[in-house]
């Protein structure tokens, strides 16, 4: 029977768990160790849409895939695992039920690895022929090659705030205006028969004054506010091509042949 260990286990507890094709299953909350060998047997994984369900997954064939722990099972198969009291020690009946679900041969006899005696059964639940990967996971007769694909999306974000702001400035303007003024001109004319009557109409000798007012134009400056134009903000959309680059990883499968 396995016993739950509450101490933090390096490289396991807190890591995300993914299935055989890389789909995320959940996060490891606790590791269950064999009471005889102190080897890891089961992992309690927090699953469910809102992380409200605990699922027990065997660590048989599990391996690190980057920062994640990858198990040799499909996500749906793990989802359908029997419910057990995950926060208690696993009983022999619990282990037997779980081993049957995951296609493992279960025995109460001690094994060197701490896993159920005999490990995983070779046939899968679906009846497909399974091979044994040298790295641990149980797979079918084919090897899956995966690669990262670059996914590019666009997000519209504010780039600049533009506002219209009006203020008053003063500038010097010069305008040339023609102006007129009167100047005095003295005219003298001789006495003739035509003007003799006007010339002799007054006294023979007298003191007299004649006045004349001279005028001139003066420039009078006034100002008034005149609307000149209307200004508004508008925007046009321009399309340009931008090139982005990112490193992507892909798996390559090589064939190695070794003659006996």
Topology, pairings included?
Elements: E1 2-5, E2 16-18, E3 24-34, E4 40-47, E5 53-58, E6 63-65, E7 68-70, H1 75-79, H2 92-101, E8 130-132, E9 138-140, H3 196-199
Parallel strand pairs: 2-7
Antiparallel strand pairs: 1-3, 2-3, 3-4, 4-5, 6-7, 8-9
What can you see in these coordinates?
By secondary structure, the chain is mainly β. The chain has three helices and nine strands; from the N terminus they run E-E-E-E-E-E-E-H-H-E-E-H. The protein has a domain at about 1-140: Photosynthetic Reaction Center, Chain H, domain 2 (Alpha-Beta Complex). It has helices at about 75-80, 90-100, 195-200; strands spanning about 1-5, 15-20, 25-35, 40-45, 55-60, 65, 70, 130, 140. Strands 1, 2, 3, 4, 5, 6 and 7 form a seven-stranded mixed beta sheet that branches. The two termini are about 45 Å apart.
CA-based gyration radius: 52 Å
* CATH top level class name of the domain at 2-140: Alpha Beta
CATH H level of the domain at 2-140: which superfamily? Photosynthetic Reaction Center, subunit H, domain 2
CATH topology of the domain at 2-140: Photosynthetic Reaction Center, Chain H, domain 2
| Share of residues in strands | 15-25%
pLDDT < 50 stretches: 3-9, 110-137
Distance between the termini: 43 Å
Shape: rod-shaped
- Give the mean pLDDT: 80
Count, helices: 3
User: Would you tell me the structural class of the helices and strands?
Assistant: mainly beta
Q: Short summary of the structure?
A:
With 260 residues, the protein is mostly beta strands.
């Amino acid at each position: 029977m396995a016993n739950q260990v509450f101490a933090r286990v390096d490289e396991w507890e807190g890591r995300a768990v993914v299935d055989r094709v890389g789909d995320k299953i959940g996060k490891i909350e606790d590791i269950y160790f064999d009471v005889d060998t102190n080897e890891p047997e089961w992992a309690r994984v927090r699953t469910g849409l809102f992380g409200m369900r605990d699922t027990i997954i065997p660590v048989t064939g599990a391996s690190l895939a980057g920062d994640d722990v990858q198990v040799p099972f499909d996500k749906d198969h793990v989802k359908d695992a029997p419910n057990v009291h995950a926060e208690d020690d696993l009983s022999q009946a619990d282990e037997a039920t779980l081993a049957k679900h995951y296609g493992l041969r279960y025995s109460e006899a001690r094994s060197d690895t701490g896993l159920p005696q005999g490990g995983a059964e070779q046939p899968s639940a679906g009846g497909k022929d399974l091979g044994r990967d040298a790295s641990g996971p149980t797979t079918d007769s084919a090897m899956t090659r995966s690669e990262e694909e670059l996914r590019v999306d666009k997000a519209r974000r504010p780039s600049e705030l533009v506002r219209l702001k009006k203020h008053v400035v003063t500038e010097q303007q010069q305008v040339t205006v023609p102006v007129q003024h009167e100047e005095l001109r003295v005219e003298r004319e001789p006495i003739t028969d035509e003007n003799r009557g006007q010339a002799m109409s007054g006294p023979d000798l007298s003191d007299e004054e004649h006045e004349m007012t001279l005028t001139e134009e003066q420039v009078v400056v006034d100002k008034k506010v005149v609307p000149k134009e209307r200004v508004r903000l508008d925007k046009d959309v321009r399309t340009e091509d931008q090139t982005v680059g990112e490193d992507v990883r892909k798996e390559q499968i090589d064939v190695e042949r070794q003659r006996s």
